[in-house]
Write a structure and sequence with these properties.
Structural class: alpha/beta
Keywords: Kinase, Transferase
CATH class: Alpha Beta
Pfam families: AA_kinase
CATH architecture: 3-Layer(aba) Sandwich
GO molecular function: carbamate kinase activity
Strand order of the largest sheet: 3-9-2-1-12-16-17-15
Organism: Ardenticatena maritima
Catalytic activity: hydrogencarbonate + NH4(+) + ATP = carbamoyl phosphate + ADP + H2O + H(+)
Order of helices and strands: EHEHHEEEHEEEHEEEHEEEEHHEHE
Number of strands: 17
Helix content: 25-40%
Oligomer: single chain
Number of helices: 9
Bound molecules: adenosine-5'-diphosphate, phosphoric acid mono(formamide)ester
Strand content: 15-25%
Length: about 325
C-alpha cells in the first residue's frame, strides 16, 4: 500500500493528557507523557494508518501566561497569539522528537514534522466578550477567589478544581490546510493545528492579524478532519471512555454510541462545558459532515480502541 492509499486519522491529543497529572506539571513529566503518547501513535502508524497529530495547549498556555505576568516588571509581556505559537513550537518539538525516536526504535521509515498553523476566526465572535476556555493549572477555590479579585475570569472545571478562562472563538478555516494535506499524502507524520491553531482575523485591508484567544483544539481538529475527509477522528484525552453521570455513583461508561444518542445525552447535560462538551460537539460535527468513525479514549488505550476493545466509539445512527 502506498502512502496515498493508507487510511488517514486525525488524532487530537489533549493538553491535559500531555502533562502527567495536575500535581506533576514540570517539563520532565511533560516529556514522560509525550513519550508515552508517541509509543501509541507509532503503533497506530505501524498498523498502517497515516496519522495527522493535533494537540491541545490549555495547561501550557496558562503556565506561560502566568510566567509572563510574574516577570512583567523585568521583561516585556507577550500577547496570547504569540503564546499559542510558542506552544505549537514547544509541544510540536516534543512530539516530533518523541515520534522520530519511536520510529527509529521500531525501524519504521517515517519522520514527523510540525507545521505552524494559523486558524481564521470571526472578529465579531461573541466568544471575545465571554471567556470560556480553561487554561493553566488547577486552583483551589480560595486561590481562584483571590485571582478573580485581581481580575481573572475563573470557572470550576469538571469537578477537578478551578481554572482561569480566556476567549475561545469558533475556528472558521485552517490557513495551512493544503500544506498539511500535501505533507500527509507524501507520507510525513504531520503535527499541526497545535493548541487549536494560532487565532487570526483579517483586518479592513484583508491582512492577517493575531488575536488574543485560545481556540478549542477539538473544534479545530474536527474542522481539519472534515476538510481533509479523514477516515477516522480520534480524540485522546484523560479518560478511557466517555461517561454518563460522570464522577457520580451512577456513572455509566459509553462503549458504542450513535450520533443521535449522543445529541440526546448532550441535551441532558452529561458533558461538562470546557472539557468533555467541546469534544462531543466536535465529533458530532465531524460525523454529520460525512465522517466515518470517531473514537474518544486515553493514550494507553489508543491501539486497543482501534481494535474495538475499548474507548467510546461514535457511529452513524
Ligand atoms: N461525561 C464525561 N465523561 C468523561 N469525562 C468527562 C465527562 N465530563 C467531563 N469529563 C472530564 O473531561 C476531561 C477531558 O477534558 P480535558 O481534560 O479538558 O481535555 P484535554 O484532554 O483535551 O485537555 C476528562 O479527563 C474528564 O475528567
Ligand atoms: N487549545 C486547547 O483546546 O487545549 P486543551 O486541549 O489543552 O484544552
Amino acid at each position: 500500500m502506498n502512502d496515498r492509499q493508507k487510511p488517514v486519522a486525525v488524532v487530537a491529543i489533549g493538553g491535559n493528557s500531555l502533562i502527567k497529572d495536575k500535581e506533576h506539571t514540570a517539563v520532565r513529566y511533560q516529556w514522560e507523557a509525550v513519550r508515552e503518547t508517541a509509543t501509541h501513535i507509532a503503533e497506530m502508524i505501524a498498523q498502517g494508518w497515516t496519522v495527522i497529530v493535533t494537540h491541545g495547549n490549555g495547561p501550557q498556555v496558562g503556565f506561560i501566561l502566568r510566567r509572563n505576568e510574574l516577570a512583567a516588571h523585568e521583561v516585556h509581556t507577550t500577547p496570547l497569539d504569540l503564546i499559542v505559537a510558542d506552544t505549537q513550537g514547544s509541544i510540536g518539538y516534543m512530539l516530533q522528537q518523541a515520534l522520530d525516536n519511536e520510529f527509529a526504535r521500531r525501524g519504521l521509515y517515517r519522520r514527523a514534522f510540525t507545521i505552524v498553523t494559523q486558524v481564521l476566526v470571526d472578529r465579531d465572535d461573541p466568544a471575545f466578550q465571554n471567556p470560556t476556555k480553561p487554561i493553566g493549572g488547577f486552583l483551589t477555590k480560595e486561590e481562584a477567589e483571590r485571582f478573580a479579585a485581581e481580575g481573572w475570569p475563573v470557572v470550576e472545571d469538571a469537578g477537578r478544581g478551578w481554572r482561569r478562562v480566556v476567549a475561545s472563538p469558533q475556528p472558521k478555516a485552517i490557513l495551512e490546510e493544503n500544506a498539511i494535506r500535501a505533507a500527509a499524502e507524501e507520507g510525513w507524520i504531520v503535527i499541526a493545528v497545535g493548541g487549536g491553531g494560532i487565532p487570526v482575523v483579517r483586518n479592513e485591508k484583508g491582512e492577517l492579524r493575531g488575536v488574543p484567544a485560545v481556540i478549542d483544539k477539538d473544534r479545530a481538529s474536527s474542522l481539519l478532519a472534515r476538510s481533509i475527509k479523514a477516515d477516522l477522528f480520534l480524540i485522546s484525552t484523560g479518560v478511557e471512555k466517555v461517561a454518563l453521570h460522570f464522577n457520580t455513583p451512577q456513572q455509566r461508561d459509553l462503549d458504542r454510541v450513535t450520533v443521535s444518542e449522543l445529541r440526546r445525552y448532550m441535551a441532558e447535560g452529561h458533558f461538562a462545558p470546557g472539557s468533555m462538551l467541546p469534544k462531543i460537539e466536535a465529533v458530532i460535527e465531524y460525523m454529520e459532515a460525512g465522517g466515518k468513525h470517531a473514537i474518544i479514549t486515553n493514550p494507553p488505550n489508543i491501539v486497543r480502541a482501534l481494535n474495538g476493545e475499548t474507548g467510546t466509539h461514535i457511529v452513524h445512527g
